[in-house]
Amino acid sequence: MTGIQTFVINLKERKDRKENILKEFSIRKEFVVQVVEAIKHKVGGVGLWKTIRHIVRDLADPASDFILICEDDHQFTGNYSSQHLFAAITEAIEKKADILSGGVSWVQTIFRISSSLYWVDKFTGTQFIIIFKQLYPKILNSKFKEHDSADLKLCSLSKNKLVVFPFISIQKDFGYSDATKFNNEKGRVSKLFKNSVETFDILNSVTKYYQEAPRFNGSFKGMVNLTVPTYIINLPERVERLKHIKKQFQNKPEFDIKIVEACKNRVGALGLWKSIRKVIQMAIANEDDVIVIVEDDHHLM
Fold it and tell me: Which CATH number does 4-207 carry?
């Protein structure tokens, strides 16, 4: 694989950021770096999107299968190596990915598809994203409104988005953001990435548990009165959801219902994972061979 065509987005007056990003890439010869002056707009997110479109339309080599777009607050982590990156890109191409992210500050719905790649539904963080050329037309033809954000817009344009984990890129916390006002707080970006890492770690812990758990080798044949332990996760204040879910299992004696109080967390996904772990601990204590885990918005068809 030859040098990666890399575009770094930087506002001309942000000299500290330009110095930071050029230092990040100075010893890494696998990247062919070009600093692109960011397009200014009263809404930072709009300016960022216009700059991304400019890169795709006017600067990307049409002969290349992908480009790397970085923001000037990108920072390599200790997990980065050129071999690791090239392997991830090769695997992403094999899996027909549209986007490969080096690290995300928030994520929704993730599935592990290999030892270091994860499929995601939504993510935030555009400090290090590889965009494959099949996505170019959608980027150029999309409509972008002032309330949109570049990362979530990219997510909406693709069904095949991958993230490298452990992350090879995070955002350096400058205490301010040119793309979104929500990150104009010292320490906020670092906290977001820390929470995101925890989300991936929880998923890996659950995966490891089930990989190492004893396998069920029995048979259900002849079990006419079988009931399945069914754990329903519900927040106590969600009375209407509790009423709904109980109705869903009404007159279905094959399910042995247990209501489990959900664990609360400022990050919803973490709260859900902690609730699932709570259910697993209950199942172990009850010596359940197999269980069903249900959220309170489940609907039987």
Answer: 3.90.550.40
